[in-house]
Design a protein that fits this description.
single chain; alpha/beta; Metallo-beta-lactamase, Chain A; binds zinc ion
Length: 309
């Protein structure tokens, strides 16, 4: 069976009962998702940027397995992975305890940002910045942000974050004969990221701990510990990895993310005028890289002033 194109994703079969939903580059999903038959019940892993993406993942589950999802899991709190939860009402949502806490803490601020007038204002500002010209990298980043803003504005209903209502800390074996697990190795891309691990098939849905083709965002987590988490993921010996963004990969995707993180950390340690390390030079001139290096610089300075190594 080949890939199946649906409104927000192309679903790629990775094994019997396992579909990787790869987000369309110009669509509203933004992040990749998974639809996995756990044995008796289907699960949706990560739900995209708007409620309609959640609804379309439900349809994808029915089309693939003849059953609607009975569980949702979120890899982390970032809105492009969680706002689609709203389109999957009435079923349990699993996430790490910290993912739930962050979404609850930030819910009213997020709702204020998602207010229609605020979104329209934000869109105008982003389009004006994009049209001012600049490097190709900056243009690409602004195009991406404009696309997110347009997707939110086009949503059919007011959007409010729906946090996970079931939590775990480090390991949860999901119900069903597949023996699928949610695992968390602590802080990395965010305070507590989760991955979906299918031990029988050695398939890993990695969320944004692994990203390809776009830069990961360092601004919500612990960059050095992210490297340690990547080592843990590699120790699982996955044969296929579905990254949070980008095409299906294998352990090479872990290494690519590792090289990027090391490059950002070494740029953050170097004098500001020093040339960028080779691993991140191709990202030069982008807003994400500047943001990531400056976050890493502040983060390392804070660690030093608190006396940590
Ligand atoms: Zn993220």
């Amino acid at each position: 069976m080949g890939p199946v194109r649906r409104p927000h994703h192309t679903f790629q079969p990775l094994a019997e009962g396992v579909r990787a939903g790869i987000a369309h580059p110009s669509g509203a999903a933004i992040c990749n998702s998974g639809v996995v038959d756990l044995g008796e019940t289907p699960l949706v892993f990560d739900t995209g940027m708007i409620p309609d993406v959640g609804r379309s993942l439900r349809e994808a589950s029915i089309a693939a397995f003849g059953r609607a999802p009975a569980l949702v899991a979120n890899s982390h709190w970032h809105l492009d992975h969680t706002l689609g939860n709203q389109g999957l009402p009435g079923i349990p949502i699993w996430g790490t305890r910290r993912t739930r806490e962050i979404l609850l803490e930030q819910r009213s601020a997020i709702e204020a940002d998602l207010d229609r007038a605020g979104l329209e204002r934000g869109l105008q500002e982003l389009e004006a910045r994009r049209d001012q010209g600049g490097s190709e990298g900056v243009f690409r980043d602004l195009e991406f942000l404009v696309r997110i803003q347009r997707a939110l504005l086009a949503a059919a209903e007011p959007i409010s974050p729906t946090p996970p209502d079931r939590t775990f800390d480090s390991r949860l074996v999901l119900p069903g004969s597949r023996g699928a697990e949610l695992r968390s190795f602590g802080s990395g891309h965010t305070d507590a990221d989760a991955v979906l691990w299918l031990p029988g098939e050695r398939i890993l849905f990695a969320g944004d701990l692994v990203v390809l083709g776009v830069q990961g965002s360092l601004g919500s987590g612990d960059p050095p510990h992210w490297l340690a988490v990547l080592d843990e993921l590699e120790r699982l010996r996955p044969e296929a990895i579905v990254p949070g963004h980008g095409p299906v990969t294998d352990v090479a995707g872990i290494d690519e993310t590792r090289q990027y993180l090391r490059g950002v950390l070494s740029a953050a340690e170097a004098p500001r005028a020093a040339p960028l390390p080779a691993a991140i030079r191709r990202w030069e001139g982008s807003l994400s890289l500047e943001g990531n290096v400056s976050f890493a610089r502040d983060w390392l300075a804070k660690q030093r002033s608190s006396g940590r190594p």
